[in-house]
Amino acid sequence: MTTISPKRKENDNAKAASSFSSKKLKTQNGAKKFPLGTNAATVGDYPVGPNFLNALFKAPAGRFGIDTLGGVIYCCQRDFKALDVWGAMVEKGIQSIPVMLKNDYHKYYGVIDIQDELNFILTHLGDKASDEKKTLAELSKGVAKLENGLVKDVMAHPLSRRNPFHPVCANHSVLSVIELLAKEPHLHRVPVLDNLQDRKLVNLITQSHVLEYLVKNLGLLGERAKKPVRECMNFFKQVHTCNENDTTLSAFRKMAEFKVSGLAIVDDTGRLKGALSCRDVRVLGKDMHFFWRMNQQVHNFVRKLRTMSDTSESASSGEHRPRTIVKCIPSDTLGDVITKLHKFKLHKIYLVDTPSDRKLKGVVSLRDVLKECLKM
């Protein structure tokens, strides 16, 4: 399997790019920029603190969250084997990996997403994916597109198939990054380059960075942090679900069909029982020896995830599965939601009517939270 060997950059203005790396391809022409106030809306009695947007505007993207994840970015090359990269992403608990130029692995090319990899595998396995008690290596034997498939075969262009990865320059403000994350439906992380000509990757701003910042600076949000969930109308929306008795394989296929990164798990009465997301593929094992678990019912698959949460392997990778159902209710505040997302390392939280009935009313993603934080 491809070895990931982290390498720290000498430039202290940059996060390190690790070795995994890509071949020549067009780069993006730059990131969309949104001026202050593009998200303007009237928000009654819960104004944002006067220093919140100003602090984000003054903070450079090149330094934001630089120490949060140990100063390391794992990268890959365009001609690496797709299954090797998949295995490394599962082992390290990584959702996306920047793809770099083959001869200069500091030069940014694009990003490959773990859901792109999963969709690629399931598409080419077809009905074979339903064979029980077989590893991915056994299932892919004789499937040339899987055995020989490269990162470039999974990537359609310098974007993930499902996520628009907009790079920004190091001298752009963190506010411009957060406005991107608030506006783009499937954007979860933003690469930061030294400039658009040299395309040297100096940082990767992730949802984890943003959550860390919001939790540490809840005071800057002012009264907005006290805004009740029931007044955040964009939190009340359709929720994609799977039944707890569905197979895990069918649930992941549903994610691909609806182009979502997670599903709410419900029982036959529609009561929330938990959540399933793409990050949960770690239960398959770093060498995919447990790929057969995809044929388990969702509730058994999630039970295994919860038992893994206390293992030394999960703890070392920072992967912890909540043992209780994490949810929010209409009387919670925006600050409560931010705190829960951060505490349980989640990218979305499901909204229910009451803690006991747990009937779904909506779902709150980090994007939804950021839109509320930026409203004027």
Task: Describe it.
- The protein is of the alpha/beta class.
- It has 13 helices and 14 strands.
- It has helices at 52-58, 82-92, 114-125, 136-140, 144-147, 151-154, 174-183, 207-216, 248-258, 298-308, 312-317, 334-343, 366-374, and strands at 16-17, 72-73, 76-77, 96-101, 104-113, 168-169, 189-193, 201-206, 241-243, 262-266, 272-277, 327-328, 348-352, 360-365.
- A 3-stranded mixed β-sheet has the order 3-4-5. A 3-stranded mixed β-sheet has the order 6-7-8. The protein has a 3-stranded mixed β-sheet with strand order 9-10-11.
- Helix 2 crosses helix 3, helix 7 (174-183) packs across helix 13 and helix 8 packs across helix 12.
- The longest helix is centred in the first third of the chain and has 12 residues, at 114-125.
- It starts with 15 loop residues before the first strand and ends with a helix.
- Residues 1-43 and 312-318 have low confidence and may be disordered.
In short:
The protein is 29% helix and 16% strand. The chain has helices at 52-58, 82-92, 114-125, 136-140, 144-147, 151-154, 174-183, 207-216, 248-258, 298-308, 312-317, 334-343, 366-374, and strands spanning 16-17, 72-73, 76-77, 96-101, 104-113, 168-169, 189-193, 201-206, 241-243, 262-266, 272-277, 327-328, 348-352, 360-365. Strands 3-4-5 form a three-stranded mixed beta sheet. It has a three-stranded mixed beta sheet with strand order 6-7-8.
Q: Tally the helices: what do you get? A: 13
**Average pLDDT figure:** 81
Pick out the low-confidence regions: 1-43, 312-318
The amount of helix comes to 25-40%
- How do the strands of the widest beta sheet line up side by side? 3-4-5
Q: Approximately how much beta-strand content do the residues carry? A: 15-25%
So what's the overall shape?
flat
The strand count comes to: 14
Question: Compute the gyration radius: what is it?
Answer: 21 Å
User: Helices and strands: which structural class?
Assistant: alpha/beta
**Secondary-structure element order, N to C:** EHEEHEEHHHHEHEEHEHEEHHEHEEH
Spatial separation of the terminal alpha carbons: 50 Å
Main β-sheet description: 3 strands, mixed
